[in-house]
Amino acid sequence: AEYNEATNAPITAKFHGAEIELYAPYISEMVRAEMVARYGYERAYNTGFKVFTNVESDVQAAAQTALVNNLHAYDMRHGYRGPQQQLWDFATQTALSHSEILEKLKPVKEIGPLLAAAVLEVSEQSATVLLKNGEQASLDWDNLKWARKYITRYRQGFPPKTAGDILNPGEQILLRKNDDGSYLLSQLPEASSALVSLDPNDGRIKAIVGGYSFEQSQYNRAVQAKRQVGSNIKPFIYSAALNNGYTLASILNDAPINQWDKSLGVAWRPKNSPAIYNGPIRIRRALAQSKNVISVRLLRGVGLQRTADHLLKFGFQNSDINRSESLALGSASITPLELARGMSAFANGGHLITPYFINEIQDSAGNVLFKTEPLLA
After folding, report:
1. For residue 260, what are the β-bridge partners?
2. Phi and psi dihedrals of 26, rounded to 5?
3. CA-CA distance, 209 to 195, in Å (whole number)?
4. Residue 237 · residue 328 · CB < 8 Å
């Protein structure tokens, strides 16, 4: 009797594992790799270490949202690339049943905020869709009209006039959920991005996002992707000039440059973007307007080697600083984290900080094994 009573009693046990307060996979992977490097695989995974990072939950959440939203905004401006696949041909085939559609949607991988759906019906300025989770929803015109046809990265088709210009029944598409609960026609962005937020006074990383989706790619662009920095290099070029006798009131000629390159057998013609030239111009105005030719003239005035040596003071690696005049236009390849570190020197009065993401490491008993003691600017 006691046995039957016990087996029939409701289950009241509760899960007491650590609650996940914030989903931040890129920083989590950085912590995992650091712990394995410090303590080895077996100890890192089996000892019960507690690792406390500097990540601020609200800042990290805002960073992840901002990166995803802006990637989608950029992608939408370049046009709609069409459905992921055709589940049935609406012109020649009978529409599938809901159960058949859901079966076909099962293997479709949903990345980040993207939701798989099938188009059921298309009217003048709306469409009815069936989501992978079984929900049926309507896409109104406000959530469709952005979808001009993608032609090339520089060219899109005419603005659509009806939903039929965009969608057809039988297409498998991707959606995103709006804040008001409605759904927006979407697609997986072709571009990717990264974001770093750090405190310029002590180097603690407050937020870091390595890409659109960790599930899609574990490549952390914030710390691994060395990309040409473009005009982000200019504050460093100008600081080299100010450190070598120039002032903000110094005047240089904002005029086209045409120089023959003997080694390549071609003329090098750096241009402003847009191609507007103002003649004699003060340095302060040239920096504000991001004048390319002034950046080149400053590099020439300071000297290529002296400028490169100055850039190393901001923590950039010597191998990433190319020794050519294109350096003035940002041909150096630098990671977002390295760039944020360098920029911090302008914010903190000229001190080079060391970025860090682990604040403290404890063993399973709560004893402190490691604590970062940052140098303050």
Report:
1. 267
2. -70, -45
3. 5
4. yes
pLDDT in tens, 280-338: 999 999 999 999 999 999 999 999 999 999 999 999 999 999 999 999 999 999 999 99
Residue 185 to residue 39: CA distance in whole angstroms? 47
- At the top level of CATH, which class does the domain 226-334 belong to? alpha beta
Cβ atoms of residues 227 and 333 within 8 Å: yes
Task: Quote the radius of gyration of the chain (alpha carbons, Å).
Answer: 28
Helix (H, G, I), strand (E, B) or coil at 340: helix
CATH of domain 79-186: 2.40.50.140
- Are 376 and 46 in contact, with CB atoms under 8 Å apart? no
The domain limits of the chain are: 21-77+195-224+359-377, 79-186, 226-334
In the block, which residue shows the tokens 């409701």?
10
Token pair 């026609």 is found at: 185
User: What is the spatial distance between Cα 11 and Cα 162, in angstroms, rounded to a whole number?
Assistant: 55
Structure tokens at 182: 């409605």
pTM of the model: 0.87
**Whether the Cβ atoms of residue 258 and residue 271 lie closer than 8 Å to each other:** no
C-alpha angle 281-286-292 in degrees, rounded to nearest 5: 110
Encoded tokens for 155: 């060219």
